[in-house]
Amino acid sequence: MAGEVANVILMDQKFLRAGSTQAHDEVYLALIQRSKAGDTDAFERLMIATQQRVASIAYRLLGTREDSQDATQEVFLRVYKSLKRFDESKAFHPWLYRIVVNVCRDIAKRERKRGYQTISLDEELENELIEQSVGPQNIEEWAMARQQKALIEMATARLPYKERTAFILRDFEGLSTEEVAKVLGVRTATVRVHVSSARARVRRYCERLISRTKERLRNELRPS
């Protein structure tokens, strides 16, 4: 059933969870200390170590490669300027994520982003499903095998910005509810509400898209 597929996709922890960041903070501490002392090589290594994750979050928040690249550059500029004020007794990644969220929010406001163009992207994914010549009876299996990431990311792009941010940090980056609350500067109860709502919206989107694609495929395969 379409609902089962969407549920499995959403709850696939191997895909959604990037793993806890706490274990990595000790690894970065020496680089942070050297960077604070003016070691540019250490800062470059710190940037390289975190750049992929920063770019990934920025892309999911902003929706375009161009904006995510601009955001990534701005994030590390702010990190460079602010690193001397970083409290080494605190976890590094939540501090970094707070900068990413703030930069992306500034860019989204400036560009007046409204997310992806829902109709065109929905149709693009539907067309891709159709072009694979997958029969209706196998479309769930094919979708799970080939389109898990696309479905989740397209659904995520349609979330309200606050829900999207909490959802990405909690379910993609694997931060705890408490860590997300610190990053966003809100109560843990607020994070729980945003994440719960986001998960429900993602499930419904996946269900609707798969159901609509199955119906479209049946119509196209029906003898005229």
What characteristics describe this protein?
single chain, 224 residues, mainly alpha, Arc Repressor Mutant, subunit A, Rna Polymerase Sigma Factor, Chain: A, elongated
Q: What do you see in this structure?
A:
- This protein has about 220 residues and is mostly helical.
- Helix 6 (about 90-110) crosses helix 11.
- The protein has helices at about 1-10, 15, 20-35, 40-60, 65-80, 90-110, 120-130, 140-145, 150-155, 160-170, 175-185, 190-220.
- The protein is elongated and about 75 Å long.
- Helices cover about 80% and strands about 0% of the residues.
- The chain has two domains: about 1-15 and about 120-220, Arc Repressor Mutant, subunit A; about 20-110, Orthogonal Bundle (Rna Polymerase Sigma Factor, Chain: A), CATH 1.10.1740.
How does the SSE layout of this entry go?
Blueprint (H helix, E strand, L loop, with lengths): L1 H10 L1 H4 L5 H15 L3 H23 L2 H18 L9 H20 L6 H14 L7 H8 L1 H10 L3 H12 L4 H8 L3 H34 L3
Helix pairs in contact: 1-8, 1-12, 3-4, 4-5, 4-6, 5-6, 6-11, 7-12, 9-12, 10-12, 11-12
